[in-house]
Amino acid sequence: YNRILYSTDASIYQVKPYGVLLPKSVEDVQATVEMAARYRIPILPRTGGSSLAGQAINEALIIDMSRYLDRVLEVNEEERWVRVQPGIVLDELNAYLKPYGLKFGPDPASSDRAAMGGIVSNNSTGA
After folding, report:
1. Residues 77, 112: one domain?
2. Which of 2, 28, 110, 116 is the most exposed place for a label (fewest CB within 10 A)?
């Protein structure tokens, strides 16, 4: 995949990554993390790339979770929780949860492109 596409996010920064991986499964991610640890290659998980402060770019192997790991895995309506993959976009998640009377609380302005992996890892809150 073209590394230049991953050298920017929504910030002013530009840093070319060592490479980009688009995992199709949790096992792909696990194998990549193990390989990177063995060879001391820094990794950077990435989802929406909507960071305004540069968290989605670095000199590292980028693991882009947004392409294939973007599903709702489970909803527990009674206990009011949901289990998702990191690449699901916030607006898509909330549309999925609406029939259950549920909503994921943070409301960032980038909710149409911010994905759960970045929202959780960056402690996003919204305006």
Report:
1. yes
2. 2
